[in-house]
From TrEMBL:
The keyword Isomerase applies. Pfam families: AP_endonuc_2. Keywords: Isomerase. This is D-psicose/D-tagatose/L-ribulose 3-epimerase. The lineage of its organism: Bacteria, Bacillati, Bacillota, Bacilli, Bacillales. It comes from Paenibacillus endophyticus. GO terms for molecular function: isomerase activity. Its EC number is 5.1.3.30, 5.1.3.31.
């Protein structure tokens, strides 16, 4: 297994001209790679990141999310579905440019939209259709899509790995699977290890994220049992830390990050990688 670090702890706008030192630190702390937000990145920056990461010997994965006001795979509005597909295709191309093979994220629906009820068959069908088209495009470029079920306070189409497994089975493409996230599982699953075992054949990416989004190992969302499951199911992909703090203003209100969760902004990375490595040894 490879250990990655999501740059959203520090920035939602990765810039190859500004973040070289950060990438060097991440390498020094013991990570195998980084996860970059690629949905709003231009192609030139994606290509530049690809060269920098190769020189540093760092691997990578891409991440994307959709704003329901402008793009939504599950919307009855054809224009919003079309825009979602265009953004996903852009993110897929950038994922290839940064040298990655996996694009992950809560891609089932646009974020920020709630209907006051659970997912309706029409919405589900639109989302399956849109993600199948994105998956077919991704397959042409050798990219896997890792769809992330997230908690009910952020999304309603798919909250559990069981929901996600049913979705990817309906998409029906070998390069479309699931992202299992410890934070969201901590909220939605009755038993996280059991849920991961049931969905094992679909899991192609993992986010290590504490219950308060802070330092992995400091709370209760990332216990030893998580790593036992991954060993047992033969998982050999990325374990990427997804943590947040007060350094990215655009995420504070969206994710309700009202306080710091560590003594130092880098602790989630520096201490988190040590925690993960201790369980992989």
């Amino acid at each position: 297994m490879k250990v990655g670090m999501n740059l959203l702890l520090w920035t939602d706008k990765p810039d190859p001209s500004k973040h070289l030192h950060l990438l060097q630190d991440i390498k020094k702390w013991g990570f195998d790679g980084v996860e970059l937000a690629v949905d709003n990145m231009d192609a030139a920056d994606a290509k530049a990141f690809g060269l920098i990461l190769k020189e540093l010997g760092l691997g990578s994965t891409g991440i994307a999310a959709l704003d329901a006001a402008v793009a939504d795979p599950s919307s009855s509005d054809e224009a919003l579905r079309g825009q979602a597909l265009e953004i996903l295709r852009h993110a897929i191309r950038n994922t290839q440019w940064i040298g990655a093979e996996v694009l992950c994220g809560p891609l089932f629906q646009g974020l920020g939209r709630f209907s006051g009820q659970g997912p309706q068959p029409e919405e589900w069908g639109y989302a399956v259709e849109t993600l199948r088209a994105a998956g077919e495009y991704a397959a042409e470029l050798g990219i896997k899509l890792a769809l992330e079920p997230i908690n009910r306070f952020e999304m309603y189409l798919a909250n559990t790995l069981e929901d996600g497994a049913r979705f990817v089975e309906e998409v029906g493409l070998s390069n479309v699977g699931l992202l299992a996230d410890t934070h969201h599982g901590n909220i939605e699953e009755l038993n996280v290890p059991k849920a991961w075992r049931r969905a094992a054949k679909h899991i192609v990416h993992v986010h290590i994220s504490e219950n308060n989004r802070g330092v992995p190992g400091s709370g209760h969302a990332v216990p030893k049992e998580i790593f036992d499951v991954l060993h047992d199911i033969g998982y050999d992909g990325w374990l990427t830390i997804e943590a947040f703090g007060q350094l990215v203003p655009g995420l504070i209100s969206r994710l309700h990050l009202w306080r710091d969760y560590a003594e130092h902004p880098d602790d989630a990375a520096r201490l988190g990688v040590q925690y993960i490595r201790s369980h992989l040894a």
